[in-house]
Amino acid sequence: MKITVVTSGLRSNYTGGSVHVRNVVKRLVNYFKVEFIPSINFFINNDRVNEEIENIRKLGIEIPDFVISLSEFRNLKPSFLPYSSSVYNKYVEKVEKVDSDFIYDPDYTTPESIFISNKVGIPLGLTLHVPLYSFSQSVFYTYYTLRPFFLQSLDYFLKRSIGLYLLTRIKAYYLRKSRHLSFVAAVSKGTLDSVNIKNSKKYVLYPGNGVDKELLQYRTNKKEDYVVFWTTLIPPKGILNFLYIINLLKKRGISIKAKVAGKFLYDKFKKLFFNYIKDNGLDVEYLGFLDRRELYATVSRAKLLIYPSLADGFSITILESLALGTPVIAYSIPTVYSVFKDVPAVKFVKEGDIRKFADEVESELKTGKLQEAIHDKRVDAFIEFHNWDNVAENIAKIIKDSLNTS
């Protein structure tokens, strides 16, 4: 049995989707013959195309000869939204015979897999890592994430909220255009609930993501006096809300030391970040983009992960924090809540309620209840189950079941 994987590459850039794709696809070779056809984004601003192709082949994955002809798309400008249909029509013209039983897109963000499936008539399965946002979610989630800098960020607010909604509509449009869509899977129930499709099966991946066992080696009972935040440092992930929470606590007379790790994508918000720290006298240390070992050691010694993100379909950040022995307070967005709602070391706050978020952080720093809960057997069982072998096995079963019933 052979499957064709269509995605933007297998190199992990530490985003949840890329980590998932690499860990799953390299394990799918244990279940199928696997070939890889890169989507357009694989080529854009990528000077390591040949190196990456060779690394993928070393995993036992086939790459068709015609793939090299797709490199002509490398000169396209990066785009938050998918390209026009004419671009994908040109792309699929270069895709020659696909000799497989099934096409699988492990991170549906652009529609190349749909165009290929429609052309060759082979059944298709997709996995979603982020929900299809409603208009209200696109607007209000973007608004919430910009506090306390909303007035300084009106241009970003308009572009982000409109762009997020358009992205959702375009992705939903192409889903409806798929003539051989066998299933849509998602890494969480909250993500899958956002999808409205007919005549195709829907699956919640359980587990949706995994964590490497090596993280457990970093666990320690010698916690230090600081809280932590780490992820990609953009407003949707909560970096601005994080600063606001730290400042609210300071105004209440609560001294709190914080450490932040990750990479800023926008110079504007990087400048706002450091100016806010300076202007308000906050004890926030920026660590930069750490290597994995240093990051794990830093998170494991923290008392708490403060994670006011409004842009996650699952949140590997929360999963890794739990594995490292650090409890979490997060917004109760449907995607993340549906994954972690029964984990006693995770406390949820209604999305956007930043003062309640500060209340919960204050309570935890005084009582340590979540830190006690990190040793609960339910947390250990949750972490043990969420491993990449289980994720890949679940996906392989869904693909096999789809082939057997088609």
Question: What does it look like?
Answer:
GO terms for molecular function: glycosyltransferase activity. By secondary structure, the chain is α/β, with parallel strands linked by helices. Helix content is 44%, strand content 14%. It folds into two domains: 2-209 and 387-405, Glycogen Phosphorylase B (Rossmann fold, 3-Layer(aba) Sandwich); 213-385, Glycogen Phosphorylase B (Rossmann fold, 3-Layer(aba) Sandwich), CATH 3.40.50. The chain has 16 helices and twelve strands. The chain has a six-stranded parallel sheet with strand order 2-1-3-4-5-6, sandwiched between helices. Helix 1 (16-28) links the parallel strand 1 and strand 2. Helix 1 (16-28) crosses helix 16 (388-405), helix 8 (239-251) runs parallel beside helix 9 and helix 8 (239-251) crosses helix 13 (354-367). It is globular, with a radius of gyration of 22 Å. The two termini are 14 Å apart.
